[in-house]
Amino acid sequence: MAEAGVRLEDSWKAVLGDEFAQPYMRHLKVFLQAEKAAGKQIFPKGAEYFRALDLTPLDEVRVVILGQDPYHGAGQAHGLCFSVRPGVRIPPSLVNIYKELQSDLGIAPARHGSLEHWAQQGVLLLNSVLTVEEARAASHQGQGWERFTDAVIRAVNEDCEHVVFMLWGSYAQKKAAFVDGSRHLVLKAPHPSPLSAHNGFFGCRHFSQANEYLLSKGRNAIDWQLPSEA
């Protein structure tokens, strides 16, 4: 973790900087240092813990997509939920996201899994927990990250206007339950995992609904078409 949050993007640092002085964040830092000292492989790398915030400044947020944990396979996680590095096999949930995107907007699935193009347009791709131990899903839950990312969501809810929250699955829906639905658009669907996508994620049309809402509020739509090469 960056010392006292010094690497946090400026607009986020302005609203989240005080979090780093809180006991829970000090505990989290000690926990991560101990895990690394024990020789455990932690994903993503330290410089990418706050990648979602780096690529999507607070005043540019138009859409929020919530994930749960980073991918725990080697070379996958790079700080954006559902996204993987170029050249890495596209995970099943992202395959299903691409399928829904094609059904909704006619956009052919990308041949890579990097969603940085979305993040650079104001799509905050936020995991609830920002680190994980290799090959151990959910291994860093309950260590403090959830409180920090609650503060991120709270900042968007309170400081931004007309943001689309795409809440896929019960975990995301519970985490963002406090979002003001009169001020923002809250879209809910099952998680895109192969275990649940057929229960209502397919056909949810969140991508087109997001753009229709943004345009209706005088904001720019998202170009969901990913570049052919990441």
From TrEMBL:
It catalyses: Hydrolyzes single-stranded DNA or mismatched double-stranded DNA and polynucleotides, releasing free uracil. PROSITE patterns: U_DNA_GLYCOSYLASE. GO terms for cellular component: cytoplasm. InterPro entries: UDG_fam1, Ura-DNA_Glyclase_AS, Uracil-DNA_glycosylase-like, Uracil-DNA_glycosylase-like_sf. Signal peptide: none annotated. SUPFAM superfamilies: Uracil-DNA glycosylase-like. Belongs to the uracil-DNA glycosylase (UDG) superfamily. UNG family. This is Uracil-DNA glycosylase. It comes from Agrobacterium albertimagni AOL15. The gene is ung.
